[in-house]
Amino acid sequence: MSELRIRGAREHNLRGVDLDLTRGQWIAVTGPSGSGKTSLVFETVVREGQRRYLGSLSARARQFFGKLGRAAVDSVEGLPPAIAMGSTDARASVRSTVGTLTGTLDLLRLLYARVAKDPGGVSLTRSHFSFNHPDGACTRCGGSGVEDEVSEDLLVEDASRSIRDGALKPTLKSGYTVYSQVTLEVMDTICRAHGFDVETPWGELSDEQRGVILRGTRRLKVPFGKHSIESRMRWEGITARPREEGYYRGLIPVIEETLKRNRNPNILRFARSVPCAECDGARLSRPGREAAIGSRRLPELLGLSARELGPALDAVDGIGRSEVAQAILPELHRRLERMVLLELGHLSLARESTTLSTGEAQRIQLASQLAAPMGGLLVALDEPTLGLHPSGQPGMTAVLDELRDRGNTLMVVEHDPDMVRQADHVVEVGPGAGPEGGLIVRSAPMSGAPLGEPLVIDGPRREPTGELRLVGATLHNLRGADLTVHLGTLQVITGPSGAGKSSLVFGTLLPALAGERGGPFERLEGADGQRVRAVDARPIGRTPRSTPATWSGLMDLIRKRFAATGEAAAAGLGASHFSFNSKEGRCSTCEGLGVQRVGLHLLEDLELECDACAGARYRPESLAVRLHGKTVADVLTLTVAEARDFFADDPPALALCAAMDDLGLGHVPLGFPSNRLSRGEAQRVKLATLLGEAGSAPTLVALDEPDRGLHPSDVERLVRSLGQLIQAGHTVLAISHHRGLWAAADRRVDVVDGVARPVAPGVGEAPAAARAPRPPVVRSDTIQLRGVRTHNLRSVDVDFPRGRVTAVCGVSGSGKTSLAFDTLAGEAWQRFSESLPFQVRRHMKRLARPELDGAEGLGPVISLRQQQARAGQRSTVATQSELGPLLRLLFSRAGTLDGTRASLLAEHFSPDRAAGACAACEGQGSVSRCDPAQLITDPSRPITAGAMDGTRVGKYLGEADGQFLATLRAAGPSVDWDRPFAELDEVAQELALRGAGSGEVLLVRWELAEGGQAGEGKGTHEFEATWDGMLALAEREAQRRVKQKSFASWAEPLAPSPCEACEGTRLGPLARSVVLGGRTLPELLDLPVDGLLEGLGVLELDRGQAAVREALMPEVRERVASLVSLGLGHLQLSRRSPTLSGGELQRTRLASVLRAGLAGVTLVLDEPTSGLHARDVEGLMELLAGFADGGNTVVLVEHDPAVLRAADHLIELGPGAGEAGGEVTAAGSPAEVLAGDGPTARALAAEGDVDGDRTPLPLTLAFEGCRAHHLKGIDVALPAAGLVAVTGVSGSGKSSLLFDVIEPSVRAGNPVQCEAVRGPEGRGAPAVFAEISSSRRPTEASTVVTALGLMGAVQSLFAAEAKGTGLARGAFSFTSPAGRCTGCRGSGRERVPMDFMADLDLPCPDCGGLRYRPEVLGVRWQGRSVADFMAAPAEELRAALERASVGGKLLRGLESLGRLGLGHLALGRAVGELSGGEVQRLTLAMGLVARGGPTLHLLDEPATGLHEADVQRLVEVLRDLASGGDLILMAEHRLSLIAACDHVIDLGPSSGAGGGSLMASGPPGALLEGATAAALRAQ
Question: What global pTM score does this model have?
Fold first, then answer.
């Protein structure tokens, strides 16, 4: 699908818009201001694209991206993942710089922390190079780089006024002087103590008296506080306390202290700044200033321009030899080059962000987020030409063309006709603004049609009425610039980006005219009494409480008009009663917002209309008053155009409404939240406020790009309004890049290279012509990887067909995971993450950068790897599917407690948070209880003589002369404890196990033997104690060691038991008590996934509760539908994740991906058929094929023959494993690959038919009445030895039978979750087996040698050769301090942390990667050091041991690896580096090494991760075990392995409650019914 289809877009003023667009184009979206462009692009398309892609990530990953709200749209099809640029103001605070905004400073900090040397010997970290961190900030200036000196002349507003009347600038209307910390009355007391008062004009005060106000006095103590005690007594709900007293400190000391904490621009206007005396403006502490790479220090580099910095870095001494530098410099250079291309090359990285123009700030954001070469994205930009001179547009065009040519789709909201003409396609939204807009006026290829031709000015230009002159401005890159302002005219300042326009006007001229701190200059002429007003594009409000009416002052007039009505007077209502920001007037329920906001965590907040005021925002008494028939709430709903008519007879209000209407704001409601206005609308509200001021004195009005956000038709309206301003006697000085404003200007000044020069008004260069039509970019048919060398891959070139399903196959260990996950997914994710802000990247998991020469055609990727899907013990189906968080939100926002709204937080319903977890079990849902059968391991012996010796804790408690048995004898003095435990009566057994129960304190006489528990000699000891029973003691002893390595051995007889306090729900009493529609959260979580919708739908809820439910239901419905479609509907939401197979866990994540409806995504899956019955594989492949047909690419690492045959494309790696693999042995369609002679083709050709004549084995083991989970009391008969497969559809009960019935029953020696266990000839099942081997996987941190338990044998082998060297046996373990390298502590690697980049993994410089000390490496066995031994393939070592006639456990372990096809593995290889199939076979090898007699092997899908050739090898090993008397029980779906078994148990017929029945039992060829039988026949 190459189309992007939008249907029914209704966001804001969009009127059910339908739009079809072709992906791979540059699409310009234009139209009048307020027509709905932003609503279409950012609020609809981008919001949906981000929600769908990010919604497929984990909740932890999503939390860094903000809330993911749904757009108001019926459907969007063919939507790629989206990123947005420039939709918000990118300027930051005084603590940020160009370096921090672009991310280049983060890279340089990392570079210096890892490579630089400090002459003072400090061990450097990134923090030492951050002026925002205590370790890096200059100790004198706090990291600001300057020292602020508060000046009296900057504090004085008017020396002719008194303190009361506002002589000082920080004076409020009430007369209170901010920063004085005292009331006006107290200030007067201070003044009178020094011979004057607050009524004395400032100019008449002596220097000493002024010093009292400015610097304080110690003549008297005064009470501090802004409010008097009398006024505080009138406050509701507050008890007035006596005010603190002290000496008055003065304004200047308080301001200076405040500046040290926060250099707020509002305070900086009272201070002059000079470079810090200690750091000289570098902002860094000594280590950060003096640390150097070669001779270059970081502050020197930060002072260079972006254009100069790249070459300077390359010239640094020795930087080319640093591996760390080579990992960082490429990305740093890419970012610098992008800055230069976007006309930002003049900026230094040290430049404060607050000094940037809005256009520069936005282009910085663009440069920092588009550094990564990615395709397949939808990139939305909001007026990228903002602040860009026409001469800079070719560079911007080149950047956007590059983005498009990579295969991205660009949606650019733009008004500049020159830039619009460069697009491939234009979408015009209109025809008007607000309610008159919201329609698609035109959607067509860009044909060069007129898009706002340059304005034609009729008549002569205005002549100046005077002039003022600024001479010698030098701020930033200004070079002695002179500017003459012609009064009474429209004067436009133009010039290339970075030339110094903003520095000249806003940084120097305006502060100079206002008497405030600004840039340096020589002199200012003709400025006497000149008033000045600045109108920029900064937001006019950041909350919904600010509106155009409140900002413009119109609301003050409205309030006064209402207060002046007879109704208001009669009710005693003043102006404050008509303000929704005042407690006198606002609704107390919603506090004047009109809505009640319900936070929905990662989803967008839900806004409910306030029940009390019905959204009107006011109290009833305020709404009872009417003005011309309308309430104050009605007036706020009027648009500006409607308000113009409404206030036709009110000149002051009319003037403001008319000014806004004339500037194109007629569509904006008076009460519209200011924080939702565009930048251009916000600027026009400010300008309208100025235009609406009647009779103001002649003023110089400075405008910063007033044409921003304006359609060409709106620019004409703007010019007319500016003309009215000039006719009223004002002067307009505007920075602009718009040709229309240039043409309308009376005077024009061009700033170039820091110098200002007058030029003739006019449009300047000829407008750009429309480019010739271009076809959409069609992304290449393949994703191309070249020269891949990741892990064992041998510089392979691979092509993945785009929009198809590709299966990567090959023998286990051949490099499939290295190719699909570590390279394809790894490289794509690295590139995508480079487009994210650094503050997000540093919180994300860092993947190792793959080794390859190049990659083309990469796009956004979603990778689901089974290892990554493994969940913790606390995780459930609800948390994995993210239905749990949605339900917690529902209960926290809508649940009731004792009939009233609970109003709790979501964490109160989380068992993983202290607020919600059951205190008794700590949110586990179970507690560890000692199992009597596991503690009494030999009931034929007395408890005093070995009955408990089978476990470590039992042996400890049963020590014959120990204190525990002494206490037991005291508790049961009449019992013969020396009798076999089985012969004791029930009362005695209960006493021994569960204690006396009475809590009686016993006098215990303990006869100590030599060396007993007390560690003392023989003797008698008497003490008092209670007898709690052996079970409680065992639990207590294990709990004492919970944080010790030995805990597992002490906890062996313990088993989880449902918590009695919470009944297994895991929640505390508060959460369990909250109900919603009569049901609790635990009751809903006990439902299966496919029953949740019905469970939620029947709830009886009130209006507010129903609104919350409906806000969440779209997410719930989509997630449930996806889970059901993947065969997971049977899973209970409360089921623990560790009980799921890796395939089931992966498919819960896959459900989130498939429901998203994305396009252009590459989905990489790790054996998604794991745990899936053959019947369900076809359905899964249909879903994946549909996902690919939607414009996505699917890559599977897979071995299932059915999947290989159903894929569109196969890539086979091999021919062998490890070093013998890593090559592409075949690639093409399944027909082509499977017709060849590669390993896969040979293995599938060798698939044999089911042997129908196989002799059935005698079934001598029986487990009767099995009822775990959904098992329906089935009777299961098994042979005592042989291969048995337990199969059936997913969720039919296979794992329950094996691991919840058979394994615990055999271990316990009695029935567990079944009625009876019977063995051959009447023997119990446990008597048949000497060992039980369960499929416990080794940890990723272990190595092959440690997983197999062979490290001790290796140590002994080398210790025998080390006689006379003084080296002990332990020295030959790389985990032992006695022999491991001290530099790397035995890891062999030096990991260099790279924070937000992939860490560098380098060989240890001390041992060269060999792990051991030199003296240990000097010991040789058969010419090999212990490091050589650990690095050699197992098969090579096996041959060497045989030649040396060395046998034992070591040889047996190596032989086991060879038999299982793992002979290529080195003993020192980390388990975390192995493929899934290698880990699966290593797990089986662990069981083979430990085998000591007839063994019961319990295997969970042993064919997972195995190639068919490996399955055949596995069958041979398992048959050898069976012939030796072992019983192998496996839960399995792979048909080839099932067909090779002696006996098959098929469960079904479906999953969950519909499963748990025995469908068939017998040899594979004898199965006649059930899904497995059908699949075997179809094979």
Answer: 0.73
